[in-house]
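INPUT
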Amino acid sequence: MAEELLRVTDLKMHFHTRDGVVKAVDGVSFTLSRGETLGVVGESGSGKSVTALTMMRLVPMPPGRVEGGEVMFKGRSLLDMTDAEIRSVRGNEIAMIFQDPMTSLNPVYRIGRQLAEPLMLHKGMNKAQAWERAVELLDLVGIPHSKERVRDYPHQFSGGMRQRVMIAMALACDPDILIADEPTTALDVTIQAQILELMQKLQKQMNSAIIMITHDLGVVADIADTVLVMYAGRPVEYGTADEVFYRPLHPYAWGLMDSIPRHDITSKSRLCPIKGQPPSLIDVPAGCAFSPRCPYAKDICHAEEPVFRRIEGEHGAACHFSGEPDFVRGDMICAGVSE
Amino acid sequence: MLQYISRRLLQFVPVFFGVTLLLFFITTVLPGDPVRLRTGERAMSPAVYAELREAYGLNDPWYIQYVHYIGKLSKGDLGTSIYTGRPVTEILNDTYPYTMKLAFAAIIIEIIVGVAAGIISALKQYSWADMLVTLSTSIMVALPVFWLGLLLQYFFGIWLKDWTNGAFYLPVSGASSSQFPEWVHLILPAITLASVSTAYAARIMRSQLLEVIGQDYVRTAHAKGLSARKVLWDHSIKNAMIPVVTFIGLDLGAMLSGAILTETVFNWPGVGFTIFRAISGRDYPVVFGGVILVLIVVLVINLLVDISYAFLDPRIRYGGGAGE
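OUTPUT
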């Protein structure tokens, strides 16, 4: 068993707004070991990004407030650190890359300066050393003519190249954990594949762990070892990628699987989207948050919030019926949709 | 870049001729005779009158006058004032330094007070300091400059003098006196001239900084582990300053072209006040000389602002070629 790097327990991040309390993250737990990749999936607004930002203490507070939970990184509590301590973790031991490479780099500074910044800050390098290392980092992420490109500005790079720069910047200090928040969403498909391949290659080289936040199940299937499925700020299923993909427990996960386009479906059948919309995080439905959209919902689902239960090993779900022998994935979600 | 600058300089030519032609044309439709105004109420003998008109070339059609004027201008001769008989270059030499002093004093106020107020206001959004800045800038923008000038004159020149029994007050007129050095004379006109621009600078700074603070690259800077102060100075304020610098640069151009209202209210002997008096006296050579000077200053400053833009914001590259 590899060294455990991160243990998140029952993390809650609520936003206190004029319209009410937004429970953006409501009781998320997971662990992450060295060399492992965790995929966090869910629809927009399900709390994936806020979970990551909360761990890094990058959520503006107020309006945000940590309502409970614990984030232990190598035995240290990230939530209890002083500002100076958490800053020495950010960009150094835990680094992040973001969704939109077009806006995540500062347009008025050269790439080299932005790459050099964390090196000078965390590794105590002087400017010349840091710029030299910046060139190596550009080589590492496969940017040609790195010696010249390091003096370019972000607008002189394409989207895919900028995301490579972001990855180079995140990996500058050899972090233990790389949090990638939808790193491929803004890129076109061929570039997506290149970026994912690059991340996996570098992960092997550096033996770091990755938290891959995405709504793209294809990406998760490609690279994740474990998967956390989130819905309305709550974890609904957690397990290894094989378990979640081949033996999903939660009806929401079933719905997600059914909405993946597949090549083996005949041309007559349609994709089966999950009907309805994710709930407002201010007025989360009583009981199970997914119950209004769940074709299997019974009375208890509308009344009582299901607790997250482990069914087999670490694999578990937050559904009243998960694990019951006659509660199996059927064609019901698609019923009425097929022609 | 050189290509861009030379192209911009070429554009000066039609602008220059356009403005000067317009000026000469306007003199034909403006009522009033500069020669008659020279002697005021007193009568002038017809012979002297005719001689003076001939001497200043006022009997020629305006376009002939224009050609003559441009011919002399090309030799650096701006003519002489009809009113005082002094060469116009000499008058401008005497008055322009005062306009420059006033403009730079005002721009310094604008930079320090405007930018600082904007930054504080953005960082403490919705605090009482922010409310104060928002309210006072609204008032500043709405107050006519001459009215603010008169208020300041009344408060610091008269009310304060009475209240302190003459112990403390500020001069309200002119650029020199036996009691005060020149820089004290500069205080009230500079504040007056700076008021509206300072308010705008503060508002632009505030909104720009608020926008930049929400940008993804600021989040990236935080995620790198930079301290809040470094994120603010290195990754926020520089970006937010770009439009502010442009505004202040253009404003400097406007101020250097003579603040007619402020200079008039405070009898400040700058080029604005001079042009104002020359217009009232139909002293056309002085008006032309003053306007041409101001025109060149504005054109040059605008060009400098556009060039500085390229240095501040690497995304902007003039003249095509390099870049995207």
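end of record. Residues 126 and 177 of chain A are 25 Å apart (CA to CA).
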